[in-house]
């Protein structure tokens, strides 16, 4: 049986707890330091609180120490890993191989995607160094993932399924450090790829002006989960340790439902890696959370255009009329909603809905009073909702519960005693024997016994069944039943999943790539292909980037910023990659 893991992000312990309530099998969270999101740190005490909440559901908690380290930081890192082990953390996600040389506790290690995990040879190297799980590079195709699994079937593979995409190869981006003195490998990415650039030729002629040429759409692999399972992926990771609680609730619930549907169909070969079941008070919808539109990014032919670094949200309708202080739309909105639209192929403008009135001019239309009134709207403009007031209101309240179904049996014994037994999926069955005289009751006791033994509201359990096996109608005081129930539940413990603690197989560190000092990043995303001047790929006619094809595909191209900085582009067509160099 293959256990599948839905891995959710947590900026804070409270967000991690909500991720668990909404169906996460595992949560990854930053510690007090040394994480790839420096703005998402948490104390060891907070992580211990998250671990305590996760334990009854057999949910794993992973802590990210996935930055490159200075030698003088290693003693502090070693001490921190021991503290995390002592509070019950399930694994550490690391980037720097220097950690392998430390005196570590018996805790599993996971290889961060920042370790450039793109080949079977690389994954085998990490496996031989003692890693339990490898986070594959985001830019891999599903065929490449399957090849890695076939070559290394004895190590768990993790991949991103949702969220922001880096345009540079994982672990091979140096732009932030070399241009802004903020290293992405130290948790301080300046998001160079989300800036607007000009594209120029060798003579400085501007071919494309003021475009987010390196800003990719967000990933959404909702439609490809089963393909990933068949390719050997067992851990499905949602990006977003800087995202808010509503985002994590919505996206975690969305993928929980999708994975559960697959597991239900294939329950003879697949199972969840955690325990419990969820009930949601809302309908998950990824388009209603932050997104830059979506791409699946699953095959070499799955090309997607640069778009905008801003949140777009879901398409909701269009403009029917424009007046001096309001617009008329063909969809409903509420005060507080955020709407946006494109007034060119790529320029996005947004506005807040200040007031809404039903229109008497046309059935089904709505008058929307923006604040401020946008300047570029025209009749027929498609609108998107990137701030959904009603949906946010649903998610700001308690929006999910997670419980473990418990079966309880109470029976009498011949020697003035009773036995209580409890069982739940994934838990060690428990039986206790309580001495108590068998006193005949004057009225039927079954309803009261079921009521008392079902009162599990302050625990993670809910009573699925109460089986009463008495030879007579015995009376047991309600207070005694409550005491027995509390004792029984306190003894329940989940059966732990097997883990592979870090035990180095050989004194070797995995190698890290070495790139030239002027190389800023390597990209699978290629502007030649986007401009339809690639000699190997042709773009659809509907593509957004339009320039005069007055130069040949071998001409030197540059990106430039408004401050005059210029970046040379080189193209490795054999690898289908674009390289960006600092001029």
Give a verbal description of the structure.
There is one protein chain. The chain has 583 residues and is α/β, with parallel strands linked by helices. It has an eight-stranded parallel barrel, surrounded by six helices. Helix 3 links the parallel strand 3 and strand 4. Helix 1 packs parallel to helix 2 (44-54) and helix 1 packs parallel to helix 8.
Summarize this structure briefly.
The chain has 583 residues and is of the alpha/beta class. The strands form five sheets. The chain has an eight-stranded parallel beta barrel with strand order 1-2-3-4-5-6-7-12, surrounded by six helices. A seven-stranded antiparallel sheet has the order 8-28-31-30-29-9-10. It is globular and about 100 Å long.
Write the layout of secondary structure elements.
Layout: E1 2-10, H1 13-21, E2 26-30, H2 44-54, E3 60-65, H3 74-86, E4 91-94, E5 109-111, H4 120-128, E6 133-135, H5 142-151, E7 156-163, E8 168-173, H6 175-180, E9 197-201, E10 206-211, E11 218-220, H7 225-230, E12 233-238, H8 245-265, E13 270-272, E14 277-280, E15 294-295, E16 314-322, E17 327-329, E18 338-342, E19 348-358, E20 366-371, E21 382-387, H9 389-396, E22 400-413, E23 417-423, E24 430-435, E25 439-440, H10 446-453, E26 461-469, E27 474-475, H11 478-490, E28 519-523, H12 527-530, E29 557-560, E30 566-572, E31 577-582
Helix pairs in contact: 1-2, 1-8, 4-5, 10-11
């Amino acid at each position: 049986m293959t256990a599948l893991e839905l891995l959710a992000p947590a900026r804070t312990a409270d967000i991690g707890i909500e991720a668990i309530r909404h169906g996460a099998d595992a949560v990854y969270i930053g510690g007090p330091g040394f994480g790839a999101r420096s703005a998402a740190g948490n104390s060891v005490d907070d992580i211990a609180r998250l671990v305590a909440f996760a334990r009854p559901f057999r949910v794993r908690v992973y802590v990210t120490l996935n930055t490159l380290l200075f030698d003088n930081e290693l003693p502090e890192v070693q001490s921190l890993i021991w503290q995390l082990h002592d509070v019950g953390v399930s694994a550490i996600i690391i980037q720097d191989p220097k950690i392998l040389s430390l005196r570590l506790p018996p805790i599993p290690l996971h290889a961060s995607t920042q370790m450039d995990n793109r080949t079977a040879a690389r994954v085998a190297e990490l496996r031989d160094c003692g890693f339990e799980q490898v986070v594959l590079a985001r830019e891999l195709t599903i065929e490449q993932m399957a090849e890695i699994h076939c070559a290394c079937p004895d190590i768990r593979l993790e991949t991103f399924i949702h969220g922001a995409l880096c345009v540079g190869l994982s672990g091979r981006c140096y732009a932030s450090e070399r241009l802004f003195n903020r290293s992405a490998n130290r948790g301080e990415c300046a998001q160079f790829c989300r800036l607007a650039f000009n594209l120029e030729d060798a003579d400085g002629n501007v071919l494309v002006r003021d475009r987010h040429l390196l800003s990719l759409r967000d990933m959404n692999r909702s439609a490809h989960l089963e393909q990933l399972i068949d390719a050997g992926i067992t851990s499905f990771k949602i990006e977003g340790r800087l995202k808010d609680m509503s985002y994590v609730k919505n996206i975690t619930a969305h993928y929980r439902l999708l994975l559960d549907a697959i597991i239900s169909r294939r329950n003879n070969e697949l199972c969840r890696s955690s325990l419990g079941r969820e009930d949601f008070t809302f309908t998950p919808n990824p388009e209603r959370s932050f997104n830059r539109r979506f791409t699946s990014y699953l095959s070499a032919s799955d090309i997607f255009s640069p778009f905008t670094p801003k949140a777009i949200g879901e398409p909701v309708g269009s403009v029917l009329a424009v007046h001096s202080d309001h617009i008329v739309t063909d969809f409903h909105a509420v005060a507080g909603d955020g709407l946006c639209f494109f007034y060119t192929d790529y320029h996005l403008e947004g506005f807040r809905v200040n007031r809404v009135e039903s229109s008497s001019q046309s059935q089904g239309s709505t008058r929307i009073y923006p604040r401020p009134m946008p300047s570029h709207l025209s009749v027929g403009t498609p609108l998107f909702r990137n701030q959904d007031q009603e949906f946010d209101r649903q998610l700001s309240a308690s929006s999910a519960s997670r419980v473990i179904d418990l079966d309880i049996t109470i029976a009498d014994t011949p020697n003035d005693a009773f036995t209580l037994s409890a069982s739940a999926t994934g838990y060690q069955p428990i039986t206790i024997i309580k001495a108590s005289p068998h006193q005949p009751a004057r009225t039927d006791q079954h309803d009261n016994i079921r009521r008392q033994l079902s009162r599990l509201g302050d625990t993670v359990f809910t009573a699925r069944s109460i089986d009463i096996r008495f030879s007579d109608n015995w009376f047991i005081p309600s207070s005694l039943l409550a005491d027995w129930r509390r004792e029984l539940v306190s003894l329940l413990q989940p059966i732990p999943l097997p883990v592979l603690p870090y035990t180095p197989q050989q004194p070797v560190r995995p190698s890290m790539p070495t790139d030239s000092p002027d190389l800023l990043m390597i990209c699978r995303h290629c502007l030649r292909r986007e401009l339809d001047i690639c000699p190997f790929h042709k773009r659809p006619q509907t593509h957004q980037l339009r320039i005069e094809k007055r130069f040949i595909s071998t001409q030197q191209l540059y990106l430039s910023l408004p401050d005059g900085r210029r970046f040379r582009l080189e193209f490795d067509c054999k690898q289908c990659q674009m390289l960006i160099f600092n001029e």
